[in-house]
Amino acid sequence: MHIAAILLIFLSVSALPALAAENRSGSDQTEAGNTSAAITIEAAPSINKAAGIEFVWELDPYYSEISLHFPLTDKPIPEISHANEFDVYRKLLVDSLVPRYMLVEAALFPMPLVGVALKEYQRDFYRGFNIGSGNLNLLEAITAGFQEPYAFSVFVGDMVSFVRPGEEKIGSNKGYMGYMLSYSNQHIKRNVLIPDHNVEIEWKMKGERKFKEDKLSWSFRLGSKLHENPDIANTLYLGFRRSNLDFSADFLSFLNNSSIDFRWDFSAKNGRLLRQEYVIGKKFPIKSWGVAIKLDLGVIWEDSAKYTGALRDRDFQNVTAVIRPNIEF
Predict the structure, then answer these.
(1) 46: pLDDT strictly greater than 50
(2) Which region holds residue 113: left if phi is over 0, alpha if psi is between -120 and 50, else beta?
(3) CB 154 within 8 A of CB 181
(4) Which residues pair with 245 in a beta bridge?
């Protein structure tokens, strides 16, 4: 476990210059219509005083959270406008080396918990969603992709606030870069809870910009997950997610109103690829209602070496389908 943590820190530090270079080369292609690379940082009169503690919450069928943001210095949160996400993170890349903010978060994953409860207490009902003669279960597909039912996290790093002149922002509208430590005492394996004190250590950058006509969120994670349960493999992982919603775009536009999410997990012991997750999504905005119907489809592949001992299945199923219907406000 200590070796995995040391390797994570080494990978995180060594990856910073490469990530900055990659962001410079891809920034013009990532956010259509934004050709300016300039970053406008505004210290609005409302934030000229020292930033205080901020309470943030989010409700979602798949990911709900509450968090507290604590400033570690007397400096206010910078406000940024007229910049795409890669320009923002070029700034945060350097600033995050000296943490200025701390975030404490409690997250709950409702749909995975529903899947666990139905499989445990309503087995006949759960089996009724089996499709064909194979191992595909519709309820498992709808709730797949989450390896714990809840988590508690502490983040330290830098933070910025996104603004757009003349337009009210919706939600927290923050960008983050720094280091996060997360803890849970349960592990989910195919909608079965397994006792397991586990810790995640990761370097991440994350952002969310929400305004009336468009919403954009993204995250990049490089981390390690360590398990107390000896039958669950410790891993190093790499993950990326990007999602956008544009009410002014064409209803069936392919590139707009879409999302992509992938993650690779490698064995911390020998580097073997143990898990792959690929999910793509499409959103269908209803402007008059201010909502979008969303459907994510994907696949999760797992190597049998991810579980050993009592957790290893004789008829191990490598592939799990992912189907996530949702509504985005």
Answers:
(1) no
(2) alpha
(3) yes
(4) 215
In whole angstroms, give the CA distance from residue 238 to residue 203. Answer: 10
Please list, in sequence order, all residues whose beta carbon lies within 8 angstroms of the beta carbon of residue 265, skipping any fewer than 6 positions away.
Answer: 225, 235, 236, 237, 273, 274, 275, 276, 306
Give me the residue label for tokens 């990911």: 63
pLDDT tens profile 289-300:
889 999 999 999
pLDDT in tens, 82-94: 766 677 777 777 7
Paired tokens of 52: 């205080």
Q: Crossing angle, helix 85-95 and helix 2-30, to 10 degrees?
A: 140
Read off the tokens for 290.
């201010």
Average pLDDT of span 282-291: 89
Question: In whole angstroms, what separates CA 122 from the centre of its chain?
Answer: 30
> Which residue matches tokens 């109103």?
257
Q: What residues contact residue 324 under an 8 Å CB cut-off, 6+ apart?
A: 62, 111, 142, 145, 279, 281, 294, 295, 296, 297
What is the number of other CB atoms lying within 10 angstroms of the CB of residue 43?
12
Strands 235-246 and 291-302: unpaired
Asked if residues 296 and 260 have their Cβ atoms less than 8 Å apart, the reply is no
Residue 103 region by backbone torsions, left for phi larger than 0, else alpha for psi between -120 and 50, else beta: beta
**Domain locations along the chain:** 2-234
| Cβ(224)–Cβ(5) below 8 Å | yes
